[in-house]
Structures are given as C-alpha cells and as structure tokens.
Design brief:
This protein has eleven helices and twelve strands. The chain has about 325 residues and is α/β, with parallel strands linked by helices. The protein folds into two domains: about 190 residues, Isopropylmalate Dehydrogenase, CATH 3.40.718.10; about 140 residues, Isopropylmalate Dehydrogenase (3-Layer(aba) Sandwich), CATH 3.40.718.10. Strand 11 and strand 12 form a beta hairpin. Helix 1 crosses helix 2 and helix 7 packs across helix 8. This is 4-hydroxythreonine-4-phosphate dehydrogenase PdxA.
C-alpha cells in the first residue's frame, strides 16, 4: 500500500445464517473514503442480503483480490461459493465450516500481503465447533494460524479501550491465568496495539482481580502477588502502566480520559463496561474488537450473529463501520 492508496480491507462474511452479510452490505457504502473493501464469502448470500436490505449495490464476484477497488455502487466478493442453501437463524455445521473457510482465506491473503487488513463479521461458536474447530472464536484461530504466542483482545468504544488477560475460558480458570507473566505480556501487547492506533506514548491502567484490588491481601492475594509485579516489570521496560487499580472505579476513570486503555483480568470484567456504552439502544450497536499482538491486522464487530433478527435487514451496521475504519486506520499507521 502506498501513501496515495486506500487500504484494502478483506471483510469475512461470518456465519451465513447470521447478520454478517447484511451489516457488510449496509456498511460498505459508508467507508469508501477510508478503505477499499472486498468481502470474503459467498456471493449469492451477499446478493440475498442486498435484497433484504433494499440496497442498490451491485455484487461483483471475483476470483482474486488483485486490483480490487470498491465503489459506492459496487461490492466485490471473493466468492468461495460454499453456501448450498440459505436459512437464517439456524445453527448449522455447514455454515460453521463455511465461516471458518472465510477466515482461513483472509489470513492467507493478509500474510501474503494481498490485503492490508481483515475485518470479521460474527461467527457462531456452536456451529464452528460442530464443524470440528478447536477454537472458541476468531482470536485463538488467528493466533494459531500466525504462530503468535502473545496476543490479546482489545475492545474499543469511543474513548474507552480495554484488553484482556483471558477471554473465552471458565471464570475459575480465568483466575488461575492471572499470573505475573500473563499480565505483563498483556500490558506489552496493549502498548503495541495503542501505538498502532496512533497513540505514541500510551498510559495504561491495570485492573485488579479482586474487590478493592485485594485490599492489601485481605480480599485475595493475586493483586499483590501477580499483578503488581507485572506492572513493575512493564514500567521497567518503559511502559507507562499503573495498577492494580480497583476494578469498580478504573473504567470510569478511563472513560473520562485518564487512561488510554485498561488491561482487564477476564472476559466480563472488560466486556461489561464496553457494552454498557456501545449497546445503548435497540437500534444501534457500536464498538470494535481488535486483536493486538498479531503480525497482521484484524478487527471485528463487537457483537454476535444475532440469529433472532437475521434475514430481516434490520441489523445495525455501526459496529462493522467502526471495525472497517479502525482496520484501515491501523493499516495506514503501519504503512
């Protein structure tokens, strides 16, 4: 990508039975100033979404992403032609397999440099499990395919950003994963991710695990024994990190601008404040999921397949718009 070019973002279609294709159809015309978009999916499924949404987009099936350039009236689709029939709102092994194939192809293209970034529509974990996937979601799959050991999920909603020491594991296991090494590594990739977003000297808050960040050991030892040493090691490496900070107040401070990101200890600790801000009505769902630490760029919507409304053309595209724009922004920063 040259400075004069827009980044080429490959957008995976997600589970064919979900809302992925329709939010892509709605989002694509809104991001033409930011990026060129090529959908990696099934062209007929995308055409179906065009009809559902009452869009005037023309779907152009392509065999290669070379020289792909999107336009307000045209949506290129790298057609894997792997959806035999379409039924919305159903958990289907074939759909799980198809959605995995979209992600695999996108990773291959990104590693080869044929696309500048990936933005993913939601997959359904039960469908991909039925298809034989060992991964709980996109993040672990991306890390495995790129041979990345140190990575984290960053969620972005407006000025609030959070990363996670662990995500899709049981809560009892998540507590065991709060080790000095894991917390320190998450702080490190968080700093890298923030620099990718153009924040050159980030300030990072590190949430405690226990109430009141352990209250000096009275409410748990992990904060003093694991988190505090990790913060000290990160600071020694030149990262502006602070913590452990009581988790019931740190997100309020970060949302007010005191910190550029909060390192969260587990899935719900980081997800709840983000979704409180991003899921502010039944009509609009915003927010971005970005995997930090990868050699390639990947963003995603911050919601699921929404089987309950799939196929009706009413799903909010706001999060997909945010995801594509964020992917393009990082691509420009890395160029």
């Amino acid at each position: 990508m040259t400075e004069a070019e827009r980044p080429l973002v490959g957008v995976t279609m997600g589970d064919p039975g979900g809302i992925g294709s329709e939010i892509i159809v709605k989002a694509a015309p809104q991001v033409t100033d930011d990026a060129d978009v090529v959908v990696i999916g099934d062209a007929d499924a995308v055409r179906n979404a065009v009809a559902q949404c009452g869009s005037d987009l023309t779907v152009e099936a392509v065999d290669t992403v070379a020289d792909v350039r999107s336009a307000p009236s045209t949506l290129p689709v790298l057609d894997l032609d792997n959806v035999a029939s379409l039924a919305h709102g159903e958990i289907d092994e074939a759909y799980g397999r198809a959605s995995l194939e979209y992600v695999e192809r996108a990773i291959e293209l990104a590693i080869a440099g044929d696309i500048d970034a990936i933005a993913t529509a939601p997959i359904h974990k039960q469908a991909t499990a039925r298809a034989g996937s060992e991964f709980a979601g996109h993040t672990g799959m991306l890390a495995a395919y790129t041979e990345t050991d140190n990575y984290s999920m960053m969620l972005i909603e407006g000025g609030l950003r959070v990363t996670h020491v662990s995500t899709h594991v049981p809560l009892r296991e998540a507590c065991d994963l709060v080790t000095t090494e894991n917390v320190r590594d998450t702080i490190t990739v968080t700093a890298q991710g923030l620099r990718d977003l153009g924040i050159d000297d980030p300030t990072i808050a590190v949430a405690g695990l226990n109430p009141h960040a352990g209250e000096g050991g009275l409410l748990g030892a992990e904060d003093d024994d694991a988190i505090e040493p990790a913060v000290e090691q990160a600071r020694a490496a030149g990262i502006d990190a602070e913590g452990p900070i009581p988790p019931d107040t740190v997100y309020v401070k970060a949302a007010a601008g005191d910190y550029d990101c909060v390192v969260s200890m587990y899935h719900d600790q980081g997800h709840i404040p983000i979704k409180m801000l991003g899921f502010d009505s039944t009509d609009t769902v915003s927010g971005v999921n970005m995997t930090v630490g990868l050699p390639i760029i990947r963003t995603s919507v911050d919601h699921g397949t929404a089987f309950d409304i799939a196929g009706q053309g009413i799903a909010s595209e706001s999060s997909m718009v945010d995801a594509i724009r964020t992917a393009a922004r990082v691509a420009v920063e890395r160029a």
